[in-house]
Amino acid sequence: PDAGSPDAGAPAAAPCPMPPLFDWEFAADPYPAYAWLREHAPVRRTELPSGVEAWLVTRYADARQALADQRLSKNPGHHSERSAHGKGKVGIPGERSANLMTHLLNIDPPDHTRLRRLVSKAFTPARAAEFEPRVRELTDQLIDGFAARGEADLIHEFAFPLPIYAICDMLGVPAEDQDDFRDWAGMMLRHHKPGQPGPPRGGVGRAVKKMRNYLAELIHRKREKPGDDLISGLTRASDHGEQLTENEAAAMAFILLFAGFETTVNLIGNGTYALLRNPGQRAELTRAVEGGDDAALATAVEELLRYDGPVEMATWRFATEPLEIGGERIGEGDPVLVVLAAADRDPAKFDRPDVLDLGRRDNQHLGYGHGIHYCLGAPLARLEGRVALESLLRRLPDVRLAADPSELRWRGGLIMRGLRQLPVQFGAV
Ligand code: HEM
Q: Residues enclosing ligand 1, CB less than 6 A?
């Protein structure tokens, strides 16, 4: 302040301290802490709960740039020990031992380009669109399972099973084996029936191993006797005579399952929760659904992704050389986490970012990432989100939250964020 201003001579105001990250309250509502980071330390080196130190990137412009910066490698081999303090781990639990590392989210060009081109031949937007009737059928069956009861846990009975059955169907996992997948996926998410104990120690690693072995065998069988499913498509897909090896196909099937499962659980869970907490907007959307306005529904799903998206941070990136992000010097080998949830609430990009606006136009959120690793499953995710929310609003028009928001527990892993349970009530139908 200049000499004449009323503040002259007053001690400089102490900057308000950084709110704690990664504790209980943070999982329930990380947005105030992200607002603080965006404003005071938009690129911040931070110790994660695992002990690893990583740079958190929270502003939209920096985040978008970092996601497309090829000097940031996806290969964990670039992780420098100096950042790790020994005990921290990056990646999917149980994955190292399972030899499933060569998947899209862990590799760079030219391997990434080759594998992505091959999988894109089998997993096309058209294939996702063809799947709509099956997703509708699954959705209706799940709602039938609890509609007469007048109450349900929408995570356990709806958001959790829908994507796992949908992806199993799409991959070509026979119906009789899909409950095994549901159990393994439950282990991997440490998801369990409310009131029952969680998975035993080592259960996650064992579940990944079982899934890996099952997929390897299924791929072998589909190579011998192909069908009209995605795994057969993966084994057939070729580019200039090149084909996926069996190990690459197994890693690809695994990442499709892994990347397409918890994300969609959280899209349905977080999305429904946001609708339940914004009754005016939800009533408008219900009217649009009743009027068959598919465009309004699609626009709403994009806003739910922006407002409280399933993927809190994009997956790991590592600096292959010293570089700058938002004016901070990132050292070679340093891990960088792009905080999509913070970027998507940046007031420099979005008008009234903390307000849910289901009709928001020009919504360039980063919920599906950006650049060469942009979500391969976005067409399927959009379809599942649209059908799930439409069916809920249509079939349970008076659905309401049956718990105080403060009682709800969040699954706050580093990369994903979603509810553990979502108890609701409705007029039984
Ligand atoms: C990549 C989000 C559903 C398959 C990504 C990335 C994000 C994302 C943010 C980029 C990660 C990064 O750059 O580090 C989401 C969200 C979903 C969803 C929010 C649901 C609402 C799905 C589904 C599938 C899928 C249903 C497949 C069945 C993939 C794959 C990649 C990916 C294979 C890696 C692409 C690459 O590295 O080239 N997803 N995803 N996702 N997603 Fe999704």
A: 67, 104-105, 116, 167, 255-256, 259-260, 263-264, 267, 309-311, 314-315, 367-369, 373, 375-377, 380-381
Among 276, 263, 282, which Cα is nearest to 385's?
263
Q: Cα(323) to centroid of ligand 1, in Å?
A: 26
CA 90, 93, 97, 103 dihedral sign is: negative
Nearest CA to ligand 1 atom 40: 375
Cross-strand bridge partners of residue 239: 242
- The model's confidence at residue 236, banded by pLDDT at 50, 70 and 90, is confident
Sequence-distant (6+) residues with CB within 8 A of 258 are 92, 188
What is the average pLDDT score of the chain? 88
Highest-confidence segment of 9-23, 211-225, 303-317: 303-317
Q: How far apart are CA 429 and CA 418, in angstroms?
A: 28
Residue among 89, 94, 119 at smallest CA distance from 104: 119
Taking CA 272 as the corner, what is the angle to CA 271 and CA 273, rounded to the nearest 5 degrees? 90
Percent of the chain whose predicted confidence (pLDDT) is above 90: 65
How many CB atoms are closer than 10 A to CB 280? 9
- What's the pLDDT score for residue 250? 85
The pLDDT tens digits for 98-148 are 466 678 999 999 999 999 999 998 888 898 889 999 999 999 999 999 999
CB distance 348 to 59 below 8 Å = yes
Between CA 200 and CA 178 the distance in angstroms is 21
- Return the number of other C-beta atoms located less than 10 Å from residue 245's C-beta: 11
